[in-house]
Amino acid sequence: MHIFPTISAATRAFSELECLGSDYRGVYYRGKLPNGCQPVAVKRFSAQFLSSQQVLDKRRGWCCENHQTMVVYEFYPNGSRDKWLFGVGVLPWSRRLKIVKDVAKALSFLHSKGLPHKNMKTTSVFLDVSFRSLLGDYGFVLSSYESRRFEGAMSPKADVFEFGVFVLEVVSGRKRLEDGQVSTEEGKDLLDFAWRMHEVLEIGLLCTLNETKGRPCMDELVEFLDLKRDLPELLK
């Protein structure tokens, strides 16, 4: 366990210059502990508490003092996965598929131990120096209100739902709408967008059937795209 002054000094009093990023649960800072040759990442929580110490990523320690909770992680130079999905540059499909597989294996391990993740987001997935995915930010409960709100929902099946949303984000390159955000034509709800993508992909597959008699004509395709006609069942 680390004391507050140690972590404050390591992050230069939580300087904005050391800020690595944030999510709705807290802010990440780069830091260097006394006698440490490797940098660490510190996540600072406000009005929160730790409900689990079981880990998958490498945590160096934690501090709960002055009504604040902080966790010290190993520093991952490539940051969290959301920076690569929604930031500058495009990840190739092979790497995106590797992301999904790595996270699925991590969640499977947690569930095999009877532990739900509780916070499955793109910001919970980190990249080490070799671009291997590591799953963090699990086992946290923000408040007694949130605990009551999600009581019974913090189960492996809830993780499966969040994993599904994560997969859609990875494949589509679009973020989910957070609470309070308004859906617009440009920023549709992720699930609606994904189902629309699914329909368009089916249309593409219909057009490329080996049997020419199964391919629709262009008039039918226009009606499919305008949602004026139901798509036929697609057979492999």
UniProtKB/TrEMBL annotation:
The UniProt record lists the Protein kinase domain at: 1-236
PANTHER family linked to this entry? PTHR27007
* The organism of origin for this protein: Citrus clementina
GO molecular function annotations of the record: ATP binding; protein tyrosine kinase activity
Spell out the protein name for this chain.
Protein kinase domain-containing protein
Pfam entry (one): PK_Tyr_Ser-Thr
* Top-level lineage group: Eukaryota
Q: Name one GO biological process term.
A: response to other organism
For this UniProt record, the keywords arranged alphabetically read as follows: ATP-binding, Nucleotide-binding
Q: Which SUPFAM superfamilies match?
A: Protein kinase-like (PK-like) (SSF56112)
